[in-house]
Amino acid sequence: MTAIEQFTDHILHSNYPVFFTGAGISTNSGIPDFRGPKGFWKTNTPIMFQDFMSQESMRIKYWTQSVEFKSNFKEKIPNEGHAIISEIINSKKAGHCITQNVDNLHQKSGLDDALVTELHGNATFAVCLNCKKRFELSFIHEEFKSTNKPPKCDSCNGWIKTATISFGQPMPEDKMIIAHEETLKADVFIVAGSSLSVFPAANFPLIAKENDAKLLIVNNEETQFDHFADVLIHDDISKTFSNLKITH
Ligand SMILES: [Zn+2]
User: Fold this and answer.
1) What are the residues whose beta carbon lies below 5 Å from ligand 1 (ion)?
2) I need a labelling partner for 192 at 20 to 30 A (CA). Which of 124, 179, 208, 240 fits?
3) Residue 107: which pLDDT band, with cuts at 50, 70 and 90?
4) CATH code for the part of the protein at 1-30+78-120+171-248
């Protein structure tokens, strides 16, 4: 059997497939790998969470960057990779998607919010850091552009920030717990487009493997866990996923 046939076979026989996705799945939607070697954060200094909380000038810089950054996500659409993941989970009515991405494309491709665990948050809206109230980015951006004042929550006066996890900001404990529980439910765990280099998130494939799940890895480049994979494909995700022979 070829690697693609083995991959297909594992997916077809899976009762609870759990996907773990990273930047590589969204590059075909025109979203660059922000943390990668040529990424946004290699040429722009990220604002550390502690600085955002303690310094007004950093909050202003943060929102100035955010207005600029917005064009990276605006009107981006899911690609074949996202579409096939949601098709598999929705047709089986079982499974889950854990993602390191903040682009909202899994939800846009038809996965219910409850089926997607975003370890690094979501860049398409903002939240109050104190009471968690949600704000639409376009509204916040318009207000910031006209006042040049960092936005504050209209309910509790807390600071508003995009719903992403910033550098220096602790990983969201509730999401880590859900991701861990979902990983333990997996009989097949599929890594798609993650170099598995950001910890602690990168531990999930190992947890799945130790729990007797099959580990399938599709990534453009090598990962440090390649030798644990039951099926390993070093290729484009959209191309690989559209070659899966999954019929319903
Ligand atoms: Zn608030």
Assistant:
1) 128, 130-131, 133, 153, 155-156, 158
2) 124
3) very high
4) 3.40.50.1220
